[in-house]
């Protein structure tokens, strides 16, 4: 019996001894690791504490940045950017592709319908005067960003150009007012904004921001899906393939390199979305060829060609149309220089100034007769009508940068001038000019070429005044 207890005692002593030695050994090893590898010796409690500290620091830094931004201290301009796809899987490989049903369910909330209400001025049939008509046209758009203040929507410039008012319809059928943030006629792109404060929380829960894909990865024969407000009847879906890439389009002077598709693109689809089968936005639908002998030829602006312009436009100030008595004027008389005229006479495209009103805003800024206006507030202008439209959104008293080309030593050189816009009276404009221009920036109408252009503008106005259902029967570029 004593032998048994003796063995138990020896076992207990051995166990205790082993435990004590193990504890001392562990402590020694830990001390050594802490000494030589302090960064790797954190306990789980220390790690959790460090994570909390990092979150606190991150929050403090974010708040500091916001405080700096609000206080007007040293800061960088915070700009909204497009949401780009991060999936590196090659487009068209089939991997990760959705069904059309899945794609539409995921992306319909990112597409909107747009209604443009504008005032169209036409001469009556006897030529006795100008009459004003309300013109309503419809198109599509894509939600490409959201800030604390606005929902940002990309569309075609021709969808919103000349608008007196713009409304946007979302996926839940709610309709809200929108303002133009920026327009670019060269690429036929525009961005409009809807105030978040005006939008119901239920609408915000329904919508989404489109994910931008890489249009350079598209392959001929790859399936695509178009979503848009076809014929103004509401959002509809068509599907097809990429018929061709890097296409030129009839009657379009810009070398954009359009995506050609046989997915049905109808009037009202302009500004709508073209998706690849991953659900990524790869194009903005812009036009179709309409004729009795043409079928299935639609065109979209590739996103890689549009991204930079859209990001520039989406970070501009939102603007509403200004009342005529508050609108800004330049005090110029000019003529449009299109691509054909530019090539023929060797002068830059833009607006050639035939007259600058003495002591008017342009004259005070140092702009001369013979200068060519190329950009207005950072955006290209190619016609006097386009400039008139832009001035509708600027008030007298605002400062605007103009890029002009001036002939010096036998060649045209660009320079930037800042103009302070003035009222109609201060700009030397006494009344609405004979064409009924609401801005008073006159375009010379001498010669048969200018007369023909005026007739074409009247025909275009008549075309724009037609119901959308009838426009599809016109042959042309679909603009």
């Amino acid at each position: 019996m004593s032998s048994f207890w003796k063995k138990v005692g020896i076992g207990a002593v051995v166990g205790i001894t082993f435990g004590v030695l193990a504890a001392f050994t562990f402590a020694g090893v830990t001390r050594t690791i802490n000494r030589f590898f302090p960064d790797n010796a954190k306990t789980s409690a220390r790690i959790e504490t460090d994570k909390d500290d990092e979150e606190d620091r991150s929050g403090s830094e974010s708040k500091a940045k916001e405080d700096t931004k609000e206080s007007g201290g040293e800061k960088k301009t915070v700009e909204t950017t497009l949401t780009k796809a991060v999936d590196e899987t090659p487009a068209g490989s089939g991997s990760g592709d959705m069904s059309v049903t899945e794609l539409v369910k995921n992306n319909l909330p990112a597409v909107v319908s747009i209604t443009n209400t504008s005032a169209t001025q036409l001469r009556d049939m006897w030529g006795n005067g100008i009459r004003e008509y309300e013109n309503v046209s419809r198109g599509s758009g894509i939600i490409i960003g959201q800030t604390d203040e606005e929902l940002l929507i990309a569309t075609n410039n021709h969808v919103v150009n000349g608008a007196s008012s713009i409304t946007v319809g979302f996926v839940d059928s709610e309709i809200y007012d929108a303002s133009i943030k920026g327009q670019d006629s060269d690429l036929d792109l525009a961005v409009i904004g809807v105030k978040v404060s005006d939008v119901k929380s239920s609408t915000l829960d329904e919508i989404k921001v489109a994910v931008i894909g890489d249009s350079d990865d598209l392959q001929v024969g790859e399936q695509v899906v178009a979503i848009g407000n076809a014929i103004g009847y509401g959002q509809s879906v068509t599907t097809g393939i990429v018929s061709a890439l890097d296409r030129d389009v009839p009657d379009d002077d810009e070398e954009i390199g359009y995506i050609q598709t046989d997915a049905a693109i109808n009037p009202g689809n302009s500004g709508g979305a073209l998706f690849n089968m991953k659900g990524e936005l790869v194009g903005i639908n812009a036009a179709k060829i309409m004729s009795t002998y043409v079928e299935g030829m639609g065109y979209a602006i590739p996103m890689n060609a549009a991204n930079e312009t859209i990001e520039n436009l989406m970070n501009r100030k939102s603007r509403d149309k200004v009342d005529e008595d508050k609108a800004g004027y330049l005090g110029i008389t000019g003529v449009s220089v299109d691509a054909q005229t530019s090539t023929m006479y060797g002068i830059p495209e833009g607006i050639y100034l035939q007259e600058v009103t003495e002591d008017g805003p342009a004259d005070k800024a140092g702009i001369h007769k013979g200068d060519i206006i190329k950009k207005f507030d950072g955006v290209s202008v190619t016609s006097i009508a386009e400039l008139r439209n832009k001035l509708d959104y600027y008030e007298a008293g605002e400062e605007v940068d103009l890029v002009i080309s001036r002939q010096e030593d036998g060649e045209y050189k660009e320079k930037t001038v800042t103009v302070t816009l003035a009222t109609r009276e201060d700009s030397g404009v006494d009344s609405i000019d004979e064409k009924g221009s609401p801005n008073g920036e006159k375009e010379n109408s001498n010669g048969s070429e200018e007369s023909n252009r005026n007739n074409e503008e009247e025909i275009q106005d008549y075309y724009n005044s037609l119901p959308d259902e009838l426009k599809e029967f016109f042959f042309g570029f679909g603009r």
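DSSP finds eleven helices and 19 strands in the chain. The first helix runs from residue 2 to 36.
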